[in-house]
Amino acid sequence: MKTEPPNLLIVDDSTAIRKILLRVLNQTGLELGHVLEAGDGKEALKLLEGQDVSLVLSDINMPNMDGLELLRALRGSPRWHDLPVVMITTEGGQARVQEAIELGATSYVRKPFSADLLRDKLAALLSK
Amino acid sequence: MTSEQPRMAIPLPSEMADMLFSTTQEVFTSMLGSDIQRVSAPEAERSTPFDGVLSLIGLAGALIGNGALVCSAEAACDLSSHLLCTEFSQVDEEVLDAVGEITNMIVGGFKNLLESHVGMLQMSIPSVIFGKNICTRDAKADVAVVVRCAFPGGEVALTVRLAAAPGTMCRPVSKERLENSAGKPILIVKAPVCKIKEPGTPVDEG
C-alpha cells in the first residue's frame, strides 16, 4: 500500500521567508503533500485542526501568537505532543535556543541560514 | 536611604559598528548570495530627509532603542530580487516584506552578539516605510552607530541607536575590558546616584 506524502506547515509572518522555505522544501527532492502556510501561531493551530501534518517549521517572533507559545500549545496537546517542530528564527541567543529545546522543539535553525544545510536537515527529518 | 543605579559595560561604538557590519555581511552572503563592502567608517547619525525605504525594529531590555535599514527604492527591489529569486522593478508589498525580513535577520544577528554583554533583549517585528522626503527623529541615545555598505545593486545604511533602560546607566568600554570581564556580572560598576529623602521631599541628584 502506498503511503501518503507528508503534509507540512510553515509558520512565519514574513511571506518572503515562507517563499524561501517553500523553495528549499521543493529542492529536497522528496515527495511532499500539501504545504500549508500560516502567518502566526493562532492561524497555525486552526490549520492543524483540519489537516494531518507531519512537520511544522515555525518562526519565533510573530504577532498574535509567537512560535514559543505555539510550541507550548502543541506540546500540551495529546494530538500534537510528538509532532516534529523545527524553529527557524533570528533568535539565536543561547537562552532562547535553550528555552525552545526545553519546550520540546525538535530542531533549531538560526536565520540567516545556508539553504544547503537547511535542505539536508529537512530531508533527514522527512525521511524518518 | 541610598539607592544605587547600576552601570553596564557595553561595547564601544566602533566595535558595535563592526558587529553590525559582520551580521550584515553574513545575511548578504548566505541569504542574498551577494558581496558587500563597507563604504565609510562609523559616523554619527545624520537626520536628513531622504526618499526610499526605511525598515525599523525596536529593541528592549537593559538597553532600549532600535535598529534600522535605509535604502533607495531601486536597492530595495534588488535586495528582494536576490532574496526571493524573483525580479522586482517597483516597491510593492512583497518588496517591503522582504526588506523587513532582511532587517530582521541583520538586527537579530546584532542583538544575538550584543546579548553576550547586556543579557537578553526583546525584538519587535519590523515596520517598513516607503516614501519620499522621509524625516526621522530619535530621542537621545547613549550609542548611535551607522554602517554604510555597497553591494552590486546599490547601497544600504544600517543604524543602531541604544540608550540605557530606566534605572540603568551604560558606559562603552573597550573590547579587551569586556573580554576580561567575561563570566563576571555585566554590571561592573555600582555608584550611588540618587539619595532618597523623606517621602514628599524633593530628590537630590548626585
Set out the fold topology.
The complex is a heterodimer of chains A (128) and B (206).
Chain A: E1 8-11, H1 15-26, E2 35-38, H2 41-50, E3 55-58, H3 67-75, E4 85-89, H4 94-103, E5 107-110, H5 115-127
Parallel strand pairs in A: 1-2, 1-3, 3-4, 4-5
Helix pairs in contact in A: 2-3
Chain B: E1 2-11, H1 13-32, E2 37-38, E3 50-60, E4 63-71, H2 73-84, H3 93-118, E5 122-123, E6 127-134, E7 143-151, E8 154-164, E9 169-173, H4 175-180, E10 189-195, E11 204-205
Parallel strand pairs in B: 1-9
Antiparallel strand pairs in B: 1-10, 2-7, 3-4, 3-5, 3-6, 4-8, 7-8, 10-11
Helix pairs in contact in B: 1-3, 2-3
Describe the protein:
- The complex is a heterodimer of chains A (128) and B (206).
- Chain A has 128 residues and is α/β, with parallel strands linked by helices.
- Chain A has helices at 15-26, 41-50, 67-75, 94-103, 115-127; strands at residues 8-11, 35-38, 55-58, 85-89, 107-110.
- Among the domains of chain A are: 1-39, no CATH class; 67-115, Response regulator (Rossmann fold, 3-Layer(aba) Sandwich), CATH 3.40.50.2300.
- A five-stranded parallel β-sheet of chain A has the order 2-1-3-4-5, with helices on both faces.
- In chain A, helix 2 packs parallel to helix 3.
- With 206 residues, chain B is of the alpha+beta class.
- Helices cover 31% and strands 37% of the residues of chain B.
- Chain B is built from four helices and eleven strands.
- In chain B, the strands form two sheets. In chain B, strands 2, 3, 4, 5, 6, 7 and 8 form a seven-stranded antiparallel β-sheet that branches. A four-stranded mixed β-sheet of chain B has the order 9-1-10-11.
- In chain B, strand 10 (189-195) and strand 11 (204-205) form a beta hairpin.
- In chain B, helix 2 (73-84) crosses helix 3.
- The longest helix of chain B has 26 residues, at 93-118.
- The A-B interface holds A 13-17, 19-20, 23, 61-63, 89-93, 95-96, 111-114 and B 26-27, 30-31, 80, 83-85, 94, 97-98, 100-101, 104-105, 107-109, 111-112, 115, 120, 123, 125.
